[in-house]
Amino acid sequence: MSSTPLPGIGVRYDLTTREDRRLSVVAQRDGARVLNAYRRDDPDECALSVKLTAPEAEALIDALMPAHHSPSLLSTTDLGLVAERIELSSTSYWCGRLLGDTRMRTETGVSIVAVLRRADAVPAPGPDFRLAGGDTLIVIGTREGVDAAAAILGRE
Amino acid sequence: MHSSAVFLIEFGAIILGLGLLGRLAGRLKFSPIPLYLLAGLAFGTGGLLPLGASEEFVAIGAEIGVILLLLMLGLEYTATDLVTNLKTQYRSGLMDAALNALPGAAMALLLGWGPVAAVVLAGVTWISSSGVIAKVLGDLGRLGNRETPVVLSILVLEDLAMAVYLPIITALLAGVSLAAGSATLAVALGVAGLVLFLAVRYGRVISRFVSSDDPEKLLLVVLGLTLLVAGIAQQLQVSAAVGAFLVGIALSGEVAEGAHNLLSPLRDLFAAVFFVFFGLHTDPSSIPPVLVPALALAVVTAGTKIATGYWAAKRAGISAKGRWRAGGTLVARGEFSIVIAGLAVTAGIEPSLGPLATAYVLILVVLGPLTARYTEPVATRLSARLRGGGPDGVPSAAPRAEMLDPVEDGAPRA
């Protein structure tokens, strides 16, 4: 990976792959990223040039990471349990309702081990914990259980 | 009371009109600069709708516009960028200056306008429009192309050259004697060098002094500092714009980024006012007589810019296609040609210079994005036809040179 400064715009990072294809990323000063792939017949010119916003670039990085399968996945274990982040939308049915009302453990068998709210983390929230839009719930359970939990929490 | 109402109505109408024009330009994927200039022509003396009450405010707004244009330019670069570019690319910069400034100077002398106008017109034809070119590079998806750093470093050198050129122009236009002029120039060079040195050495300290988490305070401090330095520079006859540019250079890192975000909308507003102001001071009826020289100058300097880009890209080991692309991209002239012409118009030398510069910029700001897009395909097709044309010496030498290039290209790979 080599880098070239682009004065006034940012920095270009270049990568030549094992198959001798050239790729580059232009990191612009304003945070935007441009992903480029070069033509075979004219290695100076881009055949593809895609502009990405910061969140789009992050999603792409996540997909490119060899270890990751899903952007919300925290880890997998050999026990067949997965931990995931599930975010409550601001229009969620559960906004302002109690955690106990979701009957999560009974319905799906998963545990909600923490709730992330802005900069804070609330560990082990009880049934009387009141949910709010924008909360991120950390749930642990079987693959099916976590999917079912995501379906319940996705209720509008 | 009454005049303030008239002022608000006039100024509001101008800004609203510019907003709508800008939107139209955006829809057509076009730089709004030519439309702003045309709007100025329409509102000004001899135009369709002459304005009265708001003229003084527009004049001050235009001055702030120039200062902000240069400040933002300075913010885009770090002092290290400038120094590295100067060291590695000064030859391209010199070639650029020689090829593109001379046609302007020659044209002014040919029209019998005298040496001062020649220096002004040289500047008008020399400096490419960083704004238009950066936008074109993004729009055409060429930010990652190998010739792009070459194009950008030529722009950087032009901007740096402005820091030397503007004080010279300011001194010449003020009509000072040779001795006083060279003293001014020495002061200007000294100040520019000192600021560059301070920025490289103590940029972080200056930035920390200006830095603030509160956007309101950051805005006020940066804007205040810039106007103050610009004013002092003006007083020393160094040119306000250069003062602003140097402030931009001295700020770096987070502060530069924050200031960039805060000041962008202000710059857009006042830069638009500046283009209108320039148009206001040009009588539309004075343009037709200078149209032929403007067109000739545009054609010649489009050619010399393409040659400059071609040459610079060749030096950097770029293949033929990329060389044509680099050349075509550099053709656009815009804001800085108008800034230079604006200084001359305010100083009141040669009345035809303003109209000529307006026509020239109108042509090249529209032509520039087109040459950026089409120079390479046209040149490739022409050279292919030449190659097919016959076994004469010149065309058959060209493809051989091209075939050698990929070998050179291999060198910088990681």
TrEMBL record, chain A:
<dbReference type="InterPro" id="IPR058776">
    <property type="entry name" value="KhtT-like_N"/>
</dbReference>
<dbReference type="Pfam" id="PF25991">
    <property type="entry name" value="KhtT_N"/>
</dbReference>
<dbReference type="InterPro" id="IPR006037">
    <property type="entry name" value="RCK_C"/>
</dbReference>
<dbReference type="InterPro" id="IPR050144">
    <property type="entry name" value="AAE_transporter"/>
</dbReference>
<dbReference type="Pfam" id="PF02080">
    <property type="entry name" value="TrkA_C"/>
</dbReference>
<feature type="domain" description="RCK C-terminal">
    <location>
        <begin position="71"/>
        <end position="155"/>
    </location>
</feature>
<dbReference type="InterPro" id="IPR036721">
    <property type="entry name" value="RCK_C_sf"/>
</dbReference>
<dbReference type="InterPro" id="IPR026278">
    <property type="entry name" value="KhtT"/>
</dbReference>
<protein>
    <submittedName>
        <fullName>Potassium transporter TrkA</fullName>
    </submittedName>
</protein>
From TrEMBL, chain B:
<keyword id="KW-0472">Membrane</keyword>
<dbReference type="InterPro" id="IPR038770">
    <property type="entry name" value="Na+/solute_symporter_sf"/>
</dbReference>
<feature type="domain" description="Cation/H+ exchanger transmembrane">
    <location>
        <begin position="20"/>
        <end position="371"/>
    </location>
</feature>
<feature type="region of interest" description="Disordered">
    <location>
        <begin position="388"/>
        <end position="414"/>
    </location>
</feature>
<feature type="transmembrane region" description="Helical">
    <location>
        <begin position="218"/>
        <end position="234"/>
    </location>
</feature>
<comment type="similarity">
    <text>Belongs to the monovalent cation:proton antiporter 2 (CPA2) transporter (TC 2.A.37) family.</text>
</comment>
<dbReference type="GO" id="GO:0015297">
    <property type="term" value="F:antiporter activity"/>
</dbReference>
<dbReference type="InterPro" id="IPR006153">
    <property type="entry name" value="Cation/H_exchanger_TM"/>
</dbReference>
<dbReference type="GO" id="GO:1902600">
    <property type="term" value="P:proton transmembrane transport"/>
</dbReference>
<keyword id="KW-1133">Transmembrane helix</keyword>
<keyword id="KW-0812">Transmembrane</keyword>
<feature type="transmembrane region" description="Helical">
    <location>
        <begin position="179"/>
        <end position="198"/>
    </location>
</feature>
<feature type="transmembrane region" description="Helical">
    <location>
        <begin position="6"/>
        <end position="26"/>
    </location>
</feature>
<dbReference type="Pfam" id="PF00999">
    <property type="entry name" value="Na_H_Exchanger"/>
</dbReference>
<feature type="transmembrane region" description="Helical">
    <location>
        <begin position="290"/>
        <end position="312"/>
    </location>
</feature>
<feature type="transmembrane region" description="Helical">
    <location>
        <begin position="97"/>
        <end position="113"/>
    </location>
</feature>
<feature type="transmembrane region" description="Helical">
    <location>
        <begin position="57"/>
        <end position="77"/>
    </location>
</feature>
<dbReference type="GO" id="GO:0016020">
    <property type="term" value="C:membrane"/>
</dbReference>
<feature type="transmembrane region" description="Helical">
    <location>
        <begin position="150"/>
        <end position="173"/>
    </location>
</feature>
<protein>
    <submittedName>
        <fullName>K(+)/H(+) antiporter YhaU</fullName>
    </submittedName>
</protein>
<keyword id="KW-0813">Transport</keyword>
<feature type="transmembrane region" description="Helical">
    <location>
        <begin position="33"/>
        <end position="51"/>
    </location>
</feature>
